[in-house]
Amino acid sequence: MTIALASLAVALLAALLYRRSALQRERHHGHAQLQALMHSLEMLQRLQKHRGLGGQGAAAARAQCSQLADELERLWRELPPSADELRELYRDWQAVRTRADDFEAHCRLIERLLTAMQLLELRQAAELDIARQCRELEELARLRGLAVRGAAATRCPLPLQVQLRYLSLRLQRSAAANGALASALERLQRQLIEPLRVAISAQECFELLTPLIDEQLGELRRRLLAADRHTQETRA
User: Fold this and answer.
1) How many CB atoms lie within 10 A of CB 182?
2) How far apart are CA 50 and CA 110, in angstroms?
3) 75-97 pLDDT, tens per residue?
4) pLDDT confidence of 7, banded at 50, 70, 90?
5) How do residues 186-198 score in pLDDT, each as one tens digit?
6) Residue 232: pLDDT band by 50, 70, 90 thresholds?
């Protein structure tokens, strides 16, 4: 009887230790995925800005674009171990870096980054909904990139007008709950899309929309940091 009880106690202890080890591995995995997502968010913000600045010819914009390129190089050198999907995008980034004014090349790279973020989030136990919101935010960032290019002309080219109108319509739902966004869209309509002569500069377009994008990215960053702190506290 004593031997049987001892064997049972050993078995229970082994099961508890295994369970504890499994939980630790799961929490470590969750932390690693969150770190990769946070790294991805930093890349996304800089790539979107690089695209917007690449459509401007001013010396200050070119200098800022070059600075962002250096920051992106650093982010690729410092990839978290769990971010293999991001490592695969480096060759595409090298091509984009040499063509800062190539809007479509930026869009393709950002689309691949968003897909990688979605995969990273799927491996994360908690449902944070970060990747989906980043995809929605990309519509506003695309609007910025197109607006900058449209404002560089005397009159916004018709193909850009079509895309700007489409994105503006897509963003109306968000604008209904965001007065600053609604005001920005109205200004673009009045000074860039509709007039026979553009009445807003490329730099003004960039400065008009960038705070709105950065604010939303900042909120996503805070959510990821909070989720990571929770993971760390649970591991303790």
Assistant:
1) 15
2) 11
3) 999 999 888 889 999 999 999 99
4) low
5) 999 999 999 999 9
6) low
